Structures are given as C-alpha cells and as structure tokens.
C-alpha cells in the first residue's frame, strides 16, 4: 500500500513539525527558513568558506518536494478542528466544502494528525472504481511439484492460488485508518455508493469482489474526512443527497486578511509589509477577472508567489521587474484567460503598469 505509507510518512513528518505562531516567532532571526532548511549565511570573518569540489559541482540540483509542513492554525481553523475532532470521535464523518485554494486539504491533514493513526488518502476522479476501493483478483500463481525421486514413480501436483489486491477503502476500513477522501464529488456517484453502508451501518459490502465473505465490519478507529468544491464547478458530479445526509458538512472560506498575512509570513519567512504587498497584488489580480468568472486566482497562488520570492531572493515590491515577472508567471493562467484580441506582450506590459499602482 504505497499510497497509505506515503500518507503516513507525510503525516508523521508534519506531526514532528507542527507549528504555531509561537514557533515562527522563535525562528525569526535564526539561520533556518520556514521549512527548517538552512538559509545561506555569510561566513564569519577569518573562516574559510568550503571549497566546492568538481564532484559536487557535477551533482544535479535537488528538486524540492513540497509538503504542507508549516500550518498556521488560524482562529477559524482551530474552531473547525475542535468541532470536527468531536464529531469524528463520536463516529460521524466530516465534509469540508469550499472554493479552490481555501485550505480544505490542509485542514483535513491537520485534523487527521490529531488522531495519531495511519492515514489513507483517496483522490476523487471519474475513473476511480470499486476495484480501486475494494480490491479484486489480479491473477493466479501456479506451483508445480514434481516428485520423481522414487524410481518409476512419477508424482505431479499443481497448485493454483488466486492473487488478490486489497483496495484502499478496504484497507482503511479493516485496519482503522483515518481516510481523507479529497474532492470526492469528482468520482462517479455509483462508486461513492459504497460509502453509504460504511457510514450508516458500519459495514463495507464486498460486491463484485468474488470473495467468500459478503461484507466486512468497519474498525472502530476508522474515521472519514471528505472534501469537495461547490457544485457549480465544472466536471463535478452532483453530490448524492443520501451520502451528504450521513456526514457533517462544514463550509470553509478563504482565510481572512490577517490570517492570510500570518500564513504567508510564516510559510515564506517574509515581513508584514511583504506579505501585505502579495495580498494586495492577489486582490488586484482577482479584480481583473471577467464578470461571472467563478474561477478566480486562489490564495494558493499568493503562497506560491511568497515561497518563490523568498527562496530565490526576489525583492517583494510591485515596482521590481523580477517580482512582476514572477507574479505574472504564477498568475499566468488567469491573465492569459483575460487577454481578448490583444497582443500577449502588449497586454502584459499594460498589466505590469497597473500592478505598479497597487
Ligand atoms: N492554515 C494554513 N497554513 C499554512 N498554509 C496554508 C493554510 N491554509 C492553506 N494553506 C496553503 O494554501 C494553499 C491552498 O490550500 P489547500 O490546498 O489546502 O486548499 P484546498 O481548499 O484544498 O484547494 P483545492 O480546492 O484547490 O484543492 C496551499 O498552498 C496550502 O499549503
Ligand atoms: Mg485540496
């Protein structure tokens, strides 16, 4: 169960680095950035700097693996976490719903952490099948035993054993994991039907798996956290009322300005003023979206801008060309969508002038 282990490792990593405002303020002035990685510091006078050997020069640059390793628990988030923990402990699943980038997945992982048990992550999608969830027959193993030790006696035995894979839901239900089912409405309602009896009767039916048992009983530690985007988003199936009726749905909204600033400051180790600049730039980018456009730049892009500026020493200033370029690259998808009949570079020039006034 590679995915299960991955999620487990990720959760453990995060647990060891649970942060709050206090930890961030302690880190200020230290030589570590928000991710606990050493920042470049000038060597004290008289110290020899380390010579880079040609071997080291040949090493390819290590790509960063981004994990949610610096969670800022805003007041709103704490309240949701407290309530959700109670509901899950009492055996009721919770469902976080809200627009893209408001922090639903972050919240789910942060909640899962509280239970200190393995986490299974499922991502909703059209092709998720019952076999992915429950498992199924993946083939046969055959063994042959040929015994010709005793002269003139020839004995041959064939053993054919069925090989089964265990689906992710079956694994989680059987072993008492915390299941995070991210964007569950993207899966077909017929696939999600499996959850009805898990959530209501505490059993997982093993339809179509051709196993001997017809269902398994849900482990008492099993907990389920669902997330979804509101239904107006394209490509999303209407959530099934019966399923929603069995879970506690909590709306998640964009963190307020103060919370957004805290997240940016902490995640990217930037100043209050720099965080404010990025938030203002994001607000401006949102204002350029066309009317009736439900897909507007999300807070996630502000986090990306802050992290990239911090890691690549780009001065966060709307008048700085490098910052402008970075911001346009990060927001590129939205800006390109808004250019109508205009030359791309001309439009960028115009928008950069507008950004300077933010
Ligand atoms: N409380 C927080 N502390 C630190 N970072 C946060 C917090 N909330 C959100 N973020 C960051 O904001 C970005 C968006 O969060 P997340 O991916 O959880 O949103 P989402 O609602 O699941 O989005 P989507 O609907 O697109 O999946 C991520 O980069 C995440 O790390
Ligand atoms: Mg998400």
UniProtKB/TrEMBL annotation:
This is Gas vesicle protein GvpN. Gene3D superfamilies: P-loop containing nucleotide triphosphate hydrolases (3.40.50.300). Residues 1-69 are annotated as: Disordered. Its main location: cytoplasm. It is found in: Cytoplasm; Gas vesicle. Residues 90-258 form the AAA+ ATPase domain. It catalyses: ATP + H2O = ADP + phosphate + H(+). Residues 19-40 have a biased composition (Low complexity). It comes from Marinococcus luteus. Belongs to the CbbQ/NirQ/NorQ/GpvN family. InterPro entries: AAA+_ATPase, ATPase_dyneun-rel_AAA, CbbQ/NirQ/NorQ/GpvN, Gas-vesicle_GvpN, P-loop_NTPase. Keywords: ATP-binding, Cytoplasm, Gas vesicle, Hydrolase, Nucleotide-binding. The keyword Translocase does not apply. Signal peptide: none annotated.
